[in-house]
């Protein structure tokens, strides 16, 4: 079977903190786990199904690859590099705070290569038809969100209100997810609560259509699949979700081809 003509990026699934930050980076393993899109490297690992797949092993609190280079503290403490997580937990030792030199170094080491890869793919791979930036979201909106405490849908698709990808194409993906995951239509939303972050905004429609996919963590980070003490997830559940995502993408391309 020919690979699906798409690019998948997974920017928030990494768990690693570079060794040179030891003693300076003070987040606990649990805090890191809470801040990243846990398990998304496995759920969206469709590298054997799609033409191009790109992830990272670097944890989001170290460098957020879905932020612009200039989106930095103190203007945004939860920016491309962070002084605080999205749950307002301090990232660095107050005696060794994040400074401009460290911020520049982290961006150069991790942010720049990731985006250089995307730029190269977009420029050279003319056989691609679409790209997906893949994430997970908490079951309920966190305190910093405008809808704090409110339940979130099972999936949210962001296409920047049509700017990064035509609405009709995004709705085909919504239909595919509903069919494969056996969901009601209301459980797959478009642009609510997420319209698409920096990656989708920067690259979408230039010229490749781009959709941000957010999967609700209630699908795997709760009983009976999740052990809160060890922060481990039943591997069979992750494999199930990965297989369903693959099936949804295959159906999406079938629907898209039929509509042309």
UniProtKB/TrEMBL annotation:
InterPro entries: N-FG_amidohydro. The lineage of its organism: Bacteria, Pseudomonadati, Nitrospinota/Tectimicrobiota group, Nitrospinota, Nitrospinia. Pfam families: FGase (PF05013). This is N-formylglutamate amidohydrolase. It comes from Nitrospina watsonii.
